[in-house]
Amino acid sequence: MKPLNPRFIFLLSLTVVSSSFGFYLPGLAPVSFCEEKSKGDLFVNRLDSVESVLPYEYDAFDFCKDTNERRPSENLGQVLFGERIETSPYKQNDDIRWASRWDYILVSMPHTNIQWFSIMNSLVIVLFLTGMVAMIMLRTLHKDIARYNQMDQRARPGLSVFLGQGTQVFIMTFITLFLACMGFLSPANRGALMTCAVVLWVLLGTPAGYVSARLYKTFGGENWKTNVLLTAFLCPGIVFVDFFMMNLILWVEGSSAAVPFGTLVAILALWFGISVPLTFVGAYFGFKKPGIEPPVRTNQIPRQIPQQSFFTKAMPGIIMGGILPFGCIFIQLFFILNSIWSHQMYYMFGFLFLVFIILVITCSEATVLLCYFHLCAEDYHWWWRSFLTSGFTAVYLFVYAVHYFFSKLQIIGAASTILYFGYTLIMVLIFFIFTGTIGFFSCFWFVNKIYSVLKVD
Question: Pick from 90, 216, 307, 356: most CB atoms within 10 A?
Fold first, then answer.
């Protein structure tokens, strides 16, 4: 086994007040010392290697072990990310000033001009799509609306399940990124971002159950118990099984990133004890509400769909629909993957939140645009198609992750490869549900709006 390069998060800072010293590790509160000559503890987190995604504890090998080892308490996010903070026998550099403690991170990050290029690139895409949608709404829509007299309203329990869980993910992501953008989830507080996301997901079971139940009733579904159970267990269950299998590999390899059994039990307790009951509560209120009625009368007998051209068929439209949203995020995606797999610190949450808003707008406008083209071709099967059109962005995300693995990383070994793609599949699934939900609700609002305004029977 090749030697691992120790990565210390020293704190990199020194507060000098008279002759007293204070040292800080991100995630730990500063400690005040008396004015006598006293040295602060140096904390380290783990050992990483560019050839492996398996982190190990700092003293996992026979060197650098502190005889007076102390471990500060760690939050849920630190445990899930494999952060194992402990003391080190080495002493810190006393020449680093407190105000300069983050300089080495800022210097190592790419220039922010790249971020502005990413934002401008995304804004151009948004302006283009906005112009197209505006042209449809102002010049074309009133000529073609008479042809739209059919709504596909067959029961779709699978779609309602994804939409409920997508609503949960969307709200969780928005709040987490907003808090990070405002500075409440600073990278200095290690694990705070993951802890916030997990807690929010657990507490947002109610809107997931409500949206799923309300839409399932709108679709005319009758097996409401199955719908609620799938909403509470389907996607979270897939994520947990994948995460558990990856954790087994970490256990076998002796990595510090392996989540302890007690933490897994705690996560299950949060899921079954809080999230699932809240999902049932939301479903109860959702089923008590009447289904969303279409604004016009729909035909009981499905109308025959004319022969479609290549570009108005389902699969080409779905494939094209994911290109523009992915074009808005691929630069930020590079930095995010670097922070996860290349051990770089990510701190540009302001840019990330702005790109998140642009992604929502782009998914909405691209899906509405393609939905309109399909309606013009008298293809009224827009329900699943609207979800898959923007959700296909996740496929491009996976392709980019494969490209990143082979072009940017130097990972060797079967365990590290399996871990990389195992965690990537979790990201892809969550992103698929998230973007698909945005596309569906945008088209749902668009179709209902044009029918309700023009009152066509």
Answer: 216
